[in-house]
Amino acid sequence: MKKLLLILLAFTTVYSVNAQVETPAPSPFSKLEQKVGLTDITLEYSRPSVKGRTVFGDLVPFGAMWRTGANKNTIITFSTDAVVDGQTLKAGSYAIFTKPGEESWEVYFYSDTENWGTPGNWDDSKVAAKTTATVYPVPFNVETFTLDINSITNNGATLDVIWEKTYIGVPFTLPTADLVQKSIDAALNGPTANDYFSAAVYYSQEGKNLEQAKTWMEKAMSMVKEPRFWQLRQQSLIYAKLGDKKSAIATAKKSLAGAEAAGNADYVKMNKDSLKEWGAM
Fold first, then answer.
1. What range does the domain containing 260 cover?
2. Which of 3, 14, 73, 181 has the fewest C-beta atoms lying within 10 Å of its C-beta?
């Protein structure tokens, strides 16, 4: 009995050490995902609340750099390039820092996103874009700090910052027209060599219309200046499945030569095995 009590005491002690009390975060994390035109935009930030305090000019001093939220950096991510006040932000992630003022804010898009709060050593070379936003009073109290993407069009939107009785908006534009034109041009130019190749391989592997697979594969090879050994390998298999051993052997020999030149032992073996099977070795 004494031994059992000791074991139970040990388990109780371990549980007590490992147990953790969970309480609500004072500034809960938020993640917003928004599509604008053809661009995916993500906002990740923590949301402090007013809690009866005076925020701007007190909790957040005027003229001082602010993390624009709480905890880790507020981060905005663009899947394509974006333009802020004539400055191009390359596709990627940026920390948003601001310097609030009574009538306007300075807004910074900072390339280093790995800071807790503002950077210890501010580096102007990491400022990818900077702009000034006008302050607009809000006729009611916004308790919890909020970021949003609004005023959405095909070609841009506005990054909204709203808290307490203050609102600012930072407009940005996106290269939607160029992206759409590229999509139109690609579609109207017809399938690519890779499209034909992928379709041919799928038909071959699934045992579908092999004549169609052959046509697509030959079309793909005609569009490639120098077919690679893995492409020739698939073409040789289609010829073999159609019973055209002469073409299969000739194509496999080309694939074998390419694989040997590239030092790819796997394709060397596969081609040699097939050539042996087809009576060429």
1. 191-277
2. 3
